Amino acid sequence: MVESAEFAAGEGNFRGRGSGGVVVGKYEVGKMVGCGGFAKVYHGRETVTGQSVAIKVVSKQRLQKGGLNASNVSREIAIMHRLRHPSIVRLSEVLATKSKIFFVMEFAKGGELFAKVSKGRFSEDLSRHYFQQLISAVGYCHSRGVFHRDLKPENLLLDDKLDLKISDFGLSALTDQIRPDGLLHTLCGTPAYVAPEVLAKKGYDGAKVDVWSCGVILFVLNAGYLPFNDHNLMVMYRKIYKGDFRIPKWTSPDLRRLLSRLLDTNPLSRITIDEILHDPWFKQGYHLRMSKFHLEDDSDMKLHALDSPMNAFHIISGSPGFNLSGLFGDDAREYDRVDRFVSGWTAARLLEKLEEMVAAAAENLTVAKKEARGMKIQGQKGNFAMVVEINQLTDQVVMMEVRHRQRAGASRPDIWSDTVRPFLVGIVHKPDDTLLGLGSDQNQEDSSSLRDVNTTL
């Protein structure tokens, strides 16, 4: 297969198949089903189970040429692993080589919603059906601090039952990107679906711009054409900014009122997700239709699987340049430095030894918090703090991430250099009698960085 073979060129981690296909990891890659500026999407099949998957292949070289970097990819990975909703495409695994990153995702057999509506407008009942699924998923995203920012029919896929799945979170934002003024400021989105406040370049509420885009989508489903459209981009932007659109005459009064509130150019008075859920037109059949949609237990949404080896997603997440710790709680951002080490000891044994270190230390250290795979240590009246997180790397090896800080002006001794690091030398893995550290987010003091480990797995 030409399409699947092209991304294997120069990569030593692929296996050929007699049929001409390519196998990456445990997946056989088929034909290309989509293409964008930085990625291509292929249909794939798990070799053992035969289950269909979608494999999004991101070229690191194309990212760099496009002015993007690892943080853009790591953000998309973090967002997709954070979300578990029936109307959101599920990311199951991430694989990586020296030049490419592979997102293994749920395969949406029904294709894009855009392809369906481009053949003709939907009835109000069918428009409502998809809009209800869309709002359910968007509201869920917002509750998890995620704003999509590029909602459009091309990014809404359909599964084999023709139910909706939101995809492509490459332009999404998280709450940690909100500036002190409480707003987002990055200019992004697709012109015909972008909210007027984004065009104003004065900052915007991520939830409000997603609602606007949902309004444009609902208009398209009901009308079969865009509310704002012109060959001249600036003319189209003026229409958006002024809210210059006409609702089709066949639209019912209730839907007309909802569309007017969705496409309100004033974000302060624009309808909210909660208000949409109580709208008379929206509510028709909503609970009956959504009863089959169950939100899954968040226990499988954690960054690391506690009792299973880490795959490339976890390796990428922990490597310098791909560090995602700041996306999973404010606590991580309080620390000045991150160091990572591997060890052949179990997590329980490592934590036990850390407790022994705390008890023996002369700096009056205390264990502030302890969990099954982690520990928080404090000292010097709060001037020193350290958080340890332990995750299974292989069946025999764990990775220990240590985030720590020592505030300026804190009295000597330097607890990290004088107490903690010498202790770690005795418990981390030491091939050839050399301390194997997995990199630091500040300085590469140790002999092997996690970035190098990632490229050889």
From TrEMBL:
The name this protein goes by in its record: non-specific serine/threonine protein kinase
Family: Belongs to the protein kinase superfamily. CAMK Ser/Thr protein kinase family. SNF1 subfamily.
Keyword entries, A-Z: ATP-binding, Kinase, Manganese, Nucleotide-binding, Serine/threonine-protein kinase, Transferase
Required cofactor names: Mn(2+)
Alphabetized CDD domains for the sequence: CIPK_C (cd12195)
All residue ranges annotated as the Protein kinase domain in the record: 27-282
Gene Ontology biological process terms in this record: response to abscisic acid; response to cold; response to glucose; response to heat; response to oxidative stress; response to salt stress; response to water deprivation; signal transduction
Function: CIPK serine-threonine protein kinases interact with CBL proteins. Binding of a CBL protein to the regulatory NAF domain of CIPK protein lead to the activation of the kinase in a calcium-dependent manner.
Gene Ontology molecular function: any one: protein serine kinase activity
Listed SMART domains: S_TKc
Pfam families (alphabetical): NAF, Pkinase
Reaction(s) the record says it catalyses: L-threonyl-[protein] + ATP = O-phospho-L-threonyl-[protein] + ADP + H(+); L-seryl-[protein] + ATP = O-phospho-L-seryl-[protein] + ADP + H(+)
One Gene Ontology cellular component: nucleus
Sequence ranges assigned to domain NAF in this UniProt record: 305-329
